[in-house]
């Protein structure tokens, strides 16, 4: 059995909630306040519910399905990465008053951890950070930045940085460029902790992409069942049925891969997370691209949702490493 | 992993180490898809060795002569068996297709008569489904069975029958009521192979070897009692046979896949292709693909065959075929190993995997099942 009864309940509750409030301006306040969604996997000592990554994965699938435009993914992935190392911040994250995000990529070198130009130097008992971070998810709305720099993982308050919000291809998720100019920071982990934080973001993006892919597949199936041409529903044409079947195979494979990675032993994560990210984002990209084609002309219009799913899938595919880069990473970590 | 399971794993491992040796040592890595022609007699003896030790029917109910092992233990057995290089199985058609069919649809007498010889590998089985005019469209079988006193008399032709040349019995889907519409006139009969009315001819495949056969029935007989379900109920029983859970066997199959993948990667490393970024990307993708097969099997373990079983078949068949293509992506693959048509492991993998997307329900049939689950069965032809 894939999910427990409690997990299925969480999924149903969240799906109904997002169907009702997903486009609400106050959705973040409702999600964190009424549902306590950011508190899910935070330890009970810090105001959380003490659930596991498996439950966070379900929440991410559902927020992906709804194309939620709120900083859920970076906040919970960063919280999971920080854990006890940022105990003071966890109650704020659990309550939804602190938005957190992870700053890794840099201009020119993207997410390459072996080419970081951002530096951290010790200064008067603390640290000062200098550098430029790019593609920071929800960076302009974040209160707290976890920063991967030469020498480890650092926490920086957002107001200590200069932030420029970008206009993004995927309009459902903002990104920012963040400049650190001697910004004061706290060191919360070494290089391994930094790599682990990246892995958790890969896993979160993978889980979200499963939701994106499944929603897009279901919308496509619904269209084929209702759209009539040549006097019959499109769903009667075998050429289209087999294409949808191939997409369903990708979605099921991605679901299984993410399901496993969310339950993997911590020492398996360095392989399981980038692997899941490759499989799930490639599936989401394939499904959402085919969805536009299978919807025909209506799928090319601004008013239809097909392009919003396609654009989220495109961004998810590129964030924290494109599939070619990540396959190389998986290969290296697997000893190939 | 709980302690009992670890103990069970040790038991399997120790038994295999103690028995897959001596006279059976040549069997390591022999047989299986693409190599079914190898060392047949010795493999039959090996099946009896397995049966005598109680390894056949591991997951069957104890009342039926099995050990009632749970899924985790069955997985362990398959994994250890594959890891030890255990030879391709010959009793699996009886063990995994006929036995659950008899448990679900057979009479107590049939279970008593047929299950023990399967568990001891004294009777091997083959499956008489496909015919020259009934491939993917199984319901159009033309082989007929007519009641003649207290026997059924069977006439017709079956094809793609694995292991028919060594099996003692065949379960045959035959038409018993020519006047009934397609699915309704069929019956599921158990037919002894050693009789004058049956002739088995091997089919030479594009590999140059034979694992499949044609089986000709010319008035072959079986006792009237050897029918599973009622006359005319054969379609339901036959589909039931195809529907039993296969996730456990799949995980064992993947251990063999891993060995093949390791060999392909090692060959690419040895001749320098691994350093080519495009080739490297394809090989890592294959490595990832095998992980995906495993995760899908683990997630769907214990489910009876449905759309996810078709998903699994499409995933592994396509994956295996791509691996075969990777294996021969070098010029040496153009030359056979010797006369008359001896193939390397890579060439055999490459050629045999063309069948993976055809047998056991072709990719097209599997896509149809997956599409049915998503789109319903509206006008699907």
UniProtKB/TrEMBL annotation, chain A:
<dbReference type="InterPro" id="IPR009100">
    <property type="entry name" value="AcylCoA_DH/oxidase_NM_dom_sf"/>
</dbReference>
<dbReference type="InterPro" id="IPR046373">
    <property type="entry name" value="Acyl-CoA_Oxase/DH_mid-dom_sf"/>
</dbReference>
<dbReference type="InterPro" id="IPR013786">
    <property type="entry name" value="AcylCoA_DH/ox_N"/>
</dbReference>
<dbReference type="Pfam" id="PF00441">
    <property type="entry name" value="Acyl-CoA_dh_1"/>
</dbReference>
<feature type="domain" description="Acyl-CoA dehydrogenase/oxidase C-terminal">
    <location>
        <begin position="202"/>
        <end position="333"/>
    </location>
</feature>
<dbReference type="InterPro" id="IPR036250">
    <property type="entry name" value="AcylCo_DH-like_C"/>
</dbReference>
<dbReference type="InterPro" id="IPR037069">
    <property type="entry name" value="AcylCoA_DH/ox_N_sf"/>
</dbReference>
<protein>
    <submittedName>
        <fullName>Acyl-CoA dehydrogenase family protein</fullName>
        <ecNumber>1.-.-.-</ecNumber>
    </submittedName>
</protein>
<dbReference type="InterPro" id="IPR009075">
    <property type="entry name" value="AcylCo_DH/oxidase_C"/>
</dbReference>
<keyword id="KW-0560">Oxidoreductase</keyword>
<dbReference type="GO" id="GO:0016491">
    <property type="term" value="F:oxidoreductase activity"/>
</dbReference>
<dbReference type="Pfam" id="PF02771">
    <property type="entry name" value="Acyl-CoA_dh_N"/>
</dbReference>
<comment type="similarity">
    <text>Belongs to the acyl-CoA dehydrogenase family.</text>
</comment>
<keyword id="KW-0274">FAD</keyword>
<keyword id="KW-0285">Flavoprotein</keyword>
<feature type="domain" description="Acyl-CoA dehydrogenase/oxidase N-terminal">
    <location>
        <begin position="5"/>
        <end position="80"/>
    </location>
</feature>
UniProtKB/TrEMBL annotation, chain B:
<dbReference type="Pfam" id="PF02770">
    <property type="entry name" value="Acyl-CoA_dh_M"/>
</dbReference>
<feature type="domain" description="Acyl-CoA dehydrogenase/oxidase C-terminal">
    <location>
        <begin position="232"/>
        <end position="375"/>
    </location>
</feature>
<feature type="domain" description="Acyl-CoA oxidase/dehydrogenase middle">
    <location>
        <begin position="126"/>
        <end position="218"/>
    </location>
</feature>
<dbReference type="InterPro" id="IPR052161">
    <property type="entry name" value="Mycobact_Acyl-CoA_DH"/>
</dbReference>
<dbReference type="InterPro" id="IPR037069">
    <property type="entry name" value="AcylCoA_DH/ox_N_sf"/>
</dbReference>
<dbReference type="Pfam" id="PF02771">
    <property type="entry name" value="Acyl-CoA_dh_N"/>
</dbReference>
<dbReference type="InterPro" id="IPR013786">
    <property type="entry name" value="AcylCoA_DH/ox_N"/>
</dbReference>
<dbReference type="InterPro" id="IPR009100">
    <property type="entry name" value="AcylCoA_DH/oxidase_NM_dom_sf"/>
</dbReference>
<protein>
    <submittedName>
        <fullName>Acyl-CoA dehydrogenase family protein</fullName>
    </submittedName>
</protein>
<comment type="similarity">
    <text>Belongs to the acyl-CoA dehydrogenase family.</text>
</comment>
<dbReference type="Pfam" id="PF00441">
    <property type="entry name" value="Acyl-CoA_dh_1"/>
</dbReference>
<dbReference type="InterPro" id="IPR009075">
    <property type="entry name" value="AcylCo_DH/oxidase_C"/>
</dbReference>
<keyword id="KW-0285">Flavoprotein</keyword>
<dbReference type="InterPro" id="IPR006091">
    <property type="entry name" value="Acyl-CoA_Oxase/DH_mid-dom"/>
</dbReference>
<dbReference type="InterPro" id="IPR036250">
    <property type="entry name" value="AcylCo_DH-like_C"/>
</dbReference>
<keyword id="KW-0274">FAD</keyword>
<keyword id="KW-0560">Oxidoreductase</keyword>
<dbReference type="InterPro" id="IPR046373">
    <property type="entry name" value="Acyl-CoA_Oxase/DH_mid-dom_sf"/>
</dbReference>
<feature type="domain" description="Acyl-CoA dehydrogenase/oxidase N-terminal">
    <location>
        <begin position="7"/>
        <end position="120"/>
    </location>
</feature>
